[in-house]
Design a protein that fits this description.
Blueprint lengths: L2 H23 L6 H16 L3 H34 L8 H22 L9 H32 L9
Helix pairs in contact: 1-3, 2-3, 3-4, 3-5, 4-5
Length: 164
C-alpha cells in the first residue's frame, strides 16, 4: 500500500467511525429521556440542581453535542476528501464544499430517521444547527490553513545575491 493510499484509508476510516458514532447517538438509547436519567443525578448531586433548571441545561448540553459532533464530522470529511482528491494546495473549495454538503446531508438523514423513532423527534432546527456547525468547521479550517501558509511564507528566507 502506497503512502497516498494509507492517507486515504486513514482519512475515510476516521470519517466512517465518526458517522457510526452519530448513528448510535441517533438511536432511542440516547434520546433526551435516556440521557436525562443519568445526567440529572450527577447535576443534582454535584450542583444541587433542581429538575426545572436541569431541563434548561440538558437542552443546551444536547445542542452543544449536535454542534460539536457535526463540526468534527465536517473536519474529518474535509481531511478524507483532501487525501482522496489530491490538489497542489493546502485548501480547496472543492474539499470544503463536499465536506459541508455531506455533513448537511447526514444531518438531514439523521433527523429524518429520528422522526420514525417514538422516543425521538426530528427537527429542522437541528439540521440548521448541524449544518451551521459544518460550515463553521470549514471556515475555521480555511482561516487556520491561511494563517499557517502566511506564517510559513514569513519564515522562508529570501536570498538576494548582489553583484552576480
Amino acid at each position: 500500500m502506497t503512502p497516498q493510499q494509507k492517507d486515504i484509508l486513514k482519512g475515510w476510516l476516521a470519517a466512517v467511525l465518526w458517522l457510526v458514532i452519530i448513528a448510535i447517538e441517533s438511536t432511542s438509547y440516547l434520546s433526551a429521556e435516556e440521557t436525562s436519567r443519568f445526567l440529572y443525578p450527577i447535576f443534582h448531586f454535584l450542583l444541587g440542581m433542581d429538575w426545572q433548571r436541569f431541563l434548561v441545561w440538558h437542552h443546551y448540553i444536547r445542542k452543544t453535542g449536535h454542534f460539536v459532533g457535526y463540526f468534527i464530522l465536517s473536519v474529518l470529511l474535509f481531511r478524507a476528501w483532501k487525501a482522496t482528491l489530491k490538489l497542489p494546495a493546502a485548501w480547496a473549495l472543492r474539499w470544503s464544499a463536499i465536506a459541508f454538503f455531506m455533513s448537511a446531508l447526514v444531518a438531514s438523514l439523521d433527523e429524518w430517521h429520528q422522526t420514525y423513532l417514538p422516543s425521538r423527534t426530528g427537527a429542522i432546527s437541528d439540521v440548521i444547527l448541524d449544518s451551521s456547525a459544518a460550515l463553521t468547521a470549514q471556515i475555521v479550517i480555511f482561516l487556520y490553513l491561511r494563517a499557517a501558509a502566511a506564517k510559513t511564507a514569513e519564515e522562508v528566507p529570501v536570498i538576494v545575491r548582489d553583484g552576480d
